[in-house]
């Protein structure tokens, strides 16, 4: 165990424990890795949901810029003057 990790104990329903244990075995990972990954995914999902997209500067600027239809393909040409891509 790394020095930055904290040992803890949790209680899981038997079915959940069994399903996670099987998933860990199938993926050749430890049970602890699977629990950490699940908790990490949950925390990331919560972080994303807490973003105020309505007041995000990029979101607010959507639709305010008119660009050539090939901007996503030829952005280097428009930014740096490189040759346009064919196709």
How would you portray this structure in words?
By secondary structure, the protein is mainly alpha-helical. It has a domain at 12-60. It has 4 helices and no strands. The chain has helices at 14-26, 31-49, 57-61, 75-80. Helix 1 (14-26) crosses helix 2. The longest helix has 19 residues, at 31-49. The model has no long low-confidence stretch (mean pLDDT 87).
Parts with pLDDT < 50 across at least 5 consecutive residues: none
Helical proportion, percent range: 40-55%
What are the secondary-structure elements, in order, as H or E? HHHH
Shape assignment: elongated
Note the main sheet. Answer: none
**What's the pLDDT, averaged over the residues?**
87
* Estimated share of beta-strand residues: under 5%
Based on the structure, what is the oligomeric state of the protein chains?
single chain
What is the β-strand count? 0
Write the layout of secondary structure elements.
Elements: H1 14-26, H2 31-49, H3 57-61, H4 75-80
Helix pairs in contact: 1-2
């Amino acid at each position: 165990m790394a020095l930055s990790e904290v040992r803890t104990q949790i209680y899981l329903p038997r079915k959940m424990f069994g399903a996670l244990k099987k998933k860990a075995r199938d993926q050749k990972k430890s049970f602890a890795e699977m629990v950490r990954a699940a908790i990490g995914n949950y925390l990331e999902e919560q972080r994303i949901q807490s973003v105020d997209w309505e007041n995000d500067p990029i979101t607010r600027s959507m639709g305010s810029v008119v660009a050539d239809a090939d901007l996503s393909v030829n952005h280097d040409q428009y930014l740096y003057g490189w040759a346009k891509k064919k196709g």
